[in-house]
Design goal:
With about 300 residues, this protein is of the alpha/beta class. It contains 13 helices and six strands.
């Protein structure tokens, strides 16, 4: 059995994954792979909670602000790039840390993605036009009719996910869910230990509300203003940006836009937990647990990996 380990830190937004990742990277003298798909883009900092300069200095990070919002980047490409980087790091390090709340991107690395059909750009463009003209609900209804299983399992509030699922249904005549991997998990040269940070729902929601207030104080509105001319891009169709575009377009008041950011972020956190709790091997740890206890649990898990029963 391989002795190489990937420690994957997951959990809802604002729970403290970045801080834990840095402490573990320092303890194990290793580097961090970011699996937060919103933090890939150079133009988005405040609204995506990119690690601060001091946090980036505290441990080497990869896949942080390495792309432009103009670039098309998906989970499949991330799977290839991240595995390549992890393999390179494992040449000199037994342990690598991965931190991120984007469930699909985490699974891309730890399990591998499904072999989905290539994108049909004509159908995708048609669906994007419908999204603009008819709204997301129309696309959700169509997906429910064509593929109820996917409707119940994907992030149904994420336009990009809905459009991708519909695109596959319409281009192949088969349900998107029929292409999804069952038990044929891809082989990795490393073992994964997943640490999930958790807290009571009220605590998570309070932390989210506080983080949004801090983002606004730190200049999120100015950041969004600078990106207004690009608001049609997929990367910007995300919480914290789309609500403030509504304000800038004169559709909402600023107060209402901020309340919607908080509400939509809370919904996102709920979806994250639903996704991550599907992994029965995750070690769930209270967000206030001291670092020594967490390290001891990791060492115990590594030993169990090295000596399977």
């Amino acid at each position: 059995m391989t002795s190489k380990i990937l420690i994957s830190i997951v959990g809802p937004t604002a729970i403290g994954k970045t801080a834990l990742g840095i402490m573990l990277a320092q303890h194990f003298n290793t580097e961090i792979i970011s699996a937060d798909s919103r933090q890939f883009y150079k133009e988005m900092s405040i609204g995506t909670a990119v690690p601060s300069a001091s946090e980036l200095d505290a441990a080497s990070h990869h896949f942080i602000q390495h792309l432009s919002i103009e670039q098309d980047y998906n989970a499949g490409t991330f799977e290839r790039d991240a595995i390549e980087k992890i393999n390179a790091l494992h040449q000199n390090k037994d342990i690598v840390i991965m931190v991120g709340g984007s469930g699909l991107f985490v699974d891309a690395v730890t399990k591998g993605l499904d072999n989905l059909p290539k994108a049909n750009l004509e159908i995708r463009q048609s669906l994007n036009n419908r999204l603009l003209n008819e709204g997301l609900e129309s696309l959700q209804r169509q997906l429910k009719g064509l593929d109820p299983k996917s409707y119940m399992s994907i992030a149904i509030d994420n336009p990009k996910r809905v459009i991708r699922a519909l695109e596959v249904c319409l281009s192949t005549g088969k349900p998107y869910s029929s292409f999804l991997k069952k038990d044929n998990k891809k082989t990795r040269h490393f073992n994964t230990i997943t640490i999930g940070l958790i807290a009571d729902r009220e605590i998570i929601y309070n932390r989210i509300n506080t983080r949004v207030d801090i983002m606004m104080d730190n200049g999120l509105l100015a950041e969004v203003k600078n990106l207004k001319s690009k608001q049609h891009l997929n990367a910007l169709n995300t919480v914290g940006y789309k609500e403030l575009f509504k304000f800038l377009d004169g559709e909402w008041t600023l107060e209402f836009a901020i309340s919607e950011i908080k509400k939509n972020t809370r919904r996102f956190a709920k979806r994250q937990l639903t996704w991550f709790k599907k992994n029965e091997t995750t070690l769930w740890i209270d967000y206030k647990t001291d670092i020594d206890t967490i390290i001891n649990r990791i060492h115990k898990a590594i030993k169990q990996n090295s000596h399977p029963k």
